[in-house]
Amino acid sequence: MSYSLIRFVLDAETGWVTLRGKLDFELMRRYTLTILARDGGVEETTGRLRVNVLDVNDNSPIFQKESYMGWLRENEQAAQQVVRIRATDEDSPPNNALIYSITSASLFPGYFSITMVEGHAVISVNSPLDYEAVPDGMIYLTVMAKDGGNPPLNSSVPVTIELFDENDNPPIFSKPSYIIKIPESIGAGATVLFVNATDKDASREFGQASLIYSLEGSSKFRLNARSGEITTTALLDREAKSEYILIVRAVDGGVGPLQKTGIATVNITLLDINDNAPIWRDEPYDVNVVEMSPIDNRRHLSPGGRPGQRGERYRGLQHQPSEPLLQHQQQHGKDPHQRHGAGQGEPQHQGHTAHENHHSVCHRPWKTTSAVLGQHHRVCKPAGPQ
Ligand SMILES: [Ca+2]
Ligand SMILES: [Ca+2]
Ligand SMILES: [Ca+2]
Ligand SMILES: [Ca+2]
């Protein structure tokens, strides 16, 4: 037996069998040597030498794969088996009896356990995991297999567990209610406001990147479905409508009943811009004033409301005896300085007969001047839109 001869040598004189090479229990567990003995003459006899090799723990456990991968959804309530692992050890019992353990976990180390199921090591997750607490949704474990030798040998393998996001967070607007004021002169297509919602789900599928905005409440405004920018669609007129209450929604990428929605209101008030020149309404206004009325006699002479009720100011012109009528002065209100300062400089209106030093700006209560019976006073009443 050539193989045996490599390893065993027989001393022809003493009969000692000596081991010459290394034995490996895993390659050859038993050797049978046939030994021939011959005397000085021609007699000879044979005998057998059987050599049993005993195992020593010279093999480390070997995993069947270089790495393992498992996956899991977040928030799973029941324990989940996520990975099956197997290692082998070429030694014989008890040197090949393997014990598995998780030696490290990048996150949630207490959440994982490892048990033997049908000769495999199975990693289970025992508690719900939060995808939003796991960077990139990946958890990295190290699993070690240790044999039963003395001393024991061990090996380790990386295990990656991928967590999948569930849509468990709704979009939430930065404010429950946006309250803004804009001038009514704002142009069509101008930006009014950016609304913004956040969604804590960490995946693109269900999180921030999935949000779609929408708006209802008025066709005068539109909302960019992705950017949250609210713009006007038309010119606005405060005198036609001075306040808009819009509802904005943000929906995430959840499917069907799992989709989640955030809602906020947008309250838009239009600020008045002086875009209406006063105009006379129903002129002339005829008022009878009793002769010899006290100078301070207060009369409300404007029809349809108290003078100055809506912030207009009136100016009375004192009647000169040589003139049949008081003349009215129409105020063009583009410039408040011009409106209020009309009586303080040079006359603003040609042909005006009243003396400037008799002018007075009438604040409430409206002060009339004394007048002559039967003469007509003309008073002004700016008539803006109602
Ligand atoms: Ca061995
Ligand atoms: Ca979560
Ligand atoms: Ca979400
Ligand atoms: Ca989630």
UniProtKB/TrEMBL annotation:
Residues 8-63, 64-173, 174-280 form the Cadherin domain. GO terms for biological process: anatomical structure morphogenesis; homophilic cell adhesion via plasma membrane adhesion molecules. Keywords: Calcium, Membrane, Repeat, Transmembrane, Transmembrane helix. Residues 296-315, 324-361 are annotated as: Disordered. Its main location: membrane. GO terms for molecular function: calcium ion binding. It is found in: Membrane. Pfam families: Cadherin. InterPro entries: Cadherin-like_dom (IPR002126), Cadherin-like_sf (IPR015919), Cadherin_CS (IPR020894). Transmembrane segments: none annotated. It comes from the Eukaryota. GO terms for cellular component: plasma membrane. PANTHER family: CADHERIN RELATED 23, FAT ATYPICAL CADHERIN-RELATED. This is Cadherin domain-containing protein.
